[in-house]
Structures are given as C-alpha cells and as structure tokens.
C-alpha cells in the first residue's frame, strides 16, 4: 500500500532516499549520568526497543545529531555539565533534531520543574521512582505518534510516483538554501530538466510505461548528485529540478552533461522522438554568484527560459 511504501523510506537532508534496515525496531536514546539508572531502564525497555546510551548532555546532543537518529530520547534532568533542560532546549533549536520526541525521566518532583520541561518542548515528564508498565506504555504511545507524524510528513513532501521530494518540498528547501547562500556569500545553481517528447512516449508505449520511465529518470537524476546538499525534486509532470548549493557555473554544467551521459548509457528506448532512439532531456542551467544581487523567483524563471531555449535549439542539450 501507499502508506507502507512511504514508511519504508527515510529522507536524509539532501533528499536522498534510503531504505532502513528491516525489520527495524525503534531506537531510544537513554541519557543518564548514572549507569545504574541506565541498567534499570535497559531491563524495562530493552526487549521491545533498540537502546543507545549517553552519560552526559554533550554526548546526547552529539548522538541525536548523528545518523541514524534516535526515534525518541528518554532523558534525566540532573547531570553534571549540560543538564537535561539545556539539552532539550538545544535539540529544539536545531532543525535537524527538533522533531525527536523528548521524554524527561527525573527525580525532580516540583510542579514548576515539570512545567519547565514541557514548555521546553518535551512530550512527557515522568517522575522517579517509575512504574515499568506505565513507562513502557507511555513510550510506546509516543513512538506511535512520532511514526504517524513522520508518515504525514513524507506524504506531504514526497512525490507519490517517483518517491523523490515534490514541488512543495522544493519551495521550502529553495527558500532555506537561498537564505543560507546569502549568509555564506556562496553561489547557488539550478538545473531545470524536462523530458523530450514525453507526450509521444506515452502515446507510443502507454501511460504505465510512461510512469515507469519517470521513476527511472528520477533514479538516474538522484544518483547523479555528488554532494549531500544537492537537492532533486519533481517540479511537475515530466519536469525535474536540481538545486545545487555552493556550486559554480562550471560544476553545474558538468553535472548537466553527466546527466545527459547517464541517460544515454541507460538508453530507455524512445522510437517516437525526433532527437534520438532513446529517451533524452533538455536542461536549463543557471548560476547566481552573488545572491544579494539576484531575485529568487527570477532565477527560476531564467532557468525555465533557458530550458525553453534548449528545446528550441533541438532538445537533448544544455543551455546556460
Ligand atoms: P517537449 O520535448 O517539448 O518537452 O515535449 P513533451 O511531449 O515532453 O511536452 P508536453 O508538455 O507536450 O507533454 C508532457 C507530457 O508528459 C504530457 C503528459 O501526459 C506527460 N506526463 C506528465 N505527467 C505524467 C505522469 O505522471 N505520468 C505519465 N505517464 N505521463 C505524464
Ligand atoms: Mg542524574
Ligand atoms: Mg514539460
Ligand atoms: Mg517535455
């Protein structure tokens, strides 16, 4: 089903889709400065979940940021160095870690402490001494909520056919990367890619074959990307877009030619194309070297114009 299909893929920041090892248990990061507490929790939760441990707040932050990320963090409050509140605040500040549910498990009994924990964004606050069945049930419920939230996020940001990010996701990432490029004063490139004579392809081979073809092209494009920050999305119909942060005109044209090469190698038969006997694409390529002097919408428009130019110049080519 569609939901299973989405659930089995994880999206990395760059938009790369990877299948998690299967069957996959949830991973819970337990943070406590006292090993004896960790031991106790291992007995309560170890059968049902994969557990990882951190004995300091600093270590917890590091582990929460690293791949694969934990599905939930169960954390003590009183620790030397960074305390649990501080760790939680840091996690919520960071885009990469803000969606990991945090549950406090603490001997702090004060109402104001509990309020503080919840206000910092923790999903739950459990007091010690704890009851094993209650903590098991609470953790299970929070993991279920997290799963549903991830599922919804995938459904709203991934294209259902090709399983790569959709236009909506591109719009978000584009704004983010634009802001970053402005701050870091680095160049930003875009490739606008359109399949040549795709209407003919559908007419000759059927719509189902057309769908398979779109999936194949998406895979080729995805595997052509060189850096984690490179971002591919399905822009619409048979159009794709690639966002290349910190990439010069040279790098961007190089990638465009690699894509044309890869499709030539793949050689998807297309007998009703005026260009070749295999499926080709036309590409518009733009680079903005000084973001402060560029306009976000205009850059996209420019890429679209260059794509049109590539079509006009005979297709299966790149215009910059
Ligand atoms: P050009 O070389 O000028 O780009 O010609 P084209 O035929 O590729 O362009 P046109 O815009 O005329 O047709 C695009 C076609 O893409 C028509 C549409 O049916 C097809 N298409 C768009 N989305 C999908 C899809 O999800 N699946 C399939 N099978 N076809 C699609
Ligand atoms: Mg402690
Ligand atoms: Mg088109
Ligand atoms: Mg087309």
From TrEMBL:
Keyword Nucleotide-binding: no
Record keywords, A-Z: Phosphoprotein
Record flagged with keyword Phosphoprotein: yes
CDD domains named in the record: GGDEF
Enzyme Commission designation: 2.7.7.65
PROSITE patterns: GGDEF, RESPONSE_REGULATORY
Family matches, as InterPro entries: CheY-like_superfamily, Diguanylate_Cyclase, GGDEF_dom, Nucleotide_cyclase, Rev_trsase/Diguanyl_cyclase, Sig_transdc_resp-reg_receiver
GO molecular function: diguanylate cyclase activity
A GO term from the CC aspect: plasma membrane
4-aspartylphosphate modified-residue sites: 76
Catalytic activity: 2 GTP = 3',3'-c-di-GMP + 2 diphosphate
GO biological process: cell adhesion involved in single-species biofilm formation; negative regulation of bacterial-type flagellum-dependent cell motility; phosphorelay signal transduction system
Span of domain GGDEF: 186-320
Domain Response regulatory span(s) in chain numbering: 27-143
SUPFAM superfamilies (UniProt xref): CheY-like, Nucleotide cyclase
Enzyme class: transferase
NCBIfam families: GGDEF (TIGR00254)
Name of protein: diguanylate cyclase
Species the sequence originates in: Desulfomicrobium norvegicum (strain DSM 1741 / NCIMB 8310) (Desulfovibrio baculatus (strain Norway 4))
């Amino acid at each position: 089903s569609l939901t299973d299909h989405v659930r089995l893929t994880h999206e990395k920041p760059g938009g790369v889709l990877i299948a998690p090892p299967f069957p996959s248990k949830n991973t819970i990061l337990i943070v406590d400065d006292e090993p004896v507490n960790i031991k106790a929790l291992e007995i309560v939760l170890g059968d049902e979940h994969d557990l990882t441990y951190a004995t300091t707040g600093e270590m917890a932050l590091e582990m929460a940021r690293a791949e694969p990320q934990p599905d939930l963090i169960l954390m003590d409050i009183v620790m030397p160095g960074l305390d649990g509140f501080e760790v939680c605040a840091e996690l919520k500040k960071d885009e990469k870690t803000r969606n990991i549910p945090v549950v406090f498990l603490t001997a702090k009994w004060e109402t104001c402490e509990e309020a503080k924990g919840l206000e910092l964004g923790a999903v739950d606050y459990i007091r010690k001494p704890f009851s094993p069945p209650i903590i098991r049930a609470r953790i299970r419920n929070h993991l279920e909520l997290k799963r549903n939230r991830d599922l919804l996020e995938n459904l709203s940001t991934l294209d259902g056919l090709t399983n790569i990010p959709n236009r909506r996701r591109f719009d978000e990432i584009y704004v983010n990367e634009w802001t970053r490029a402005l701050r870091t004063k680095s160049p930003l490139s875009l490739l606008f890619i359109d399949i040549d004579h795709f209407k003919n392809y559908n007419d000759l081979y059927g719509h189902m074959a057309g769908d398979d073809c779109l999936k194949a092209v998406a895979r080729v494009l995805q595997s052509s990307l060189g850096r984690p920050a490179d971002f591919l999305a399905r822009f619409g119909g048979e159009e794709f877009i690639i966002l290349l942060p910190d990439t010069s005109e040279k790098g961007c044209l190089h990638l465009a030619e690699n894509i044309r090469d890869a499709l030539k190698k793949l050689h998807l038969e297309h007998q009703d194309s005026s260009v070749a006997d295999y499926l080709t694409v036309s590409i518009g390529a733009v680079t903005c070297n000084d973001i402060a002097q560029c306009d976000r919408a205009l850059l996209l428009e420019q890429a679209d114009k260059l794509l049109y130019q590539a079509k006009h110049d005979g297709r299966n080519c790149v215009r910059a």
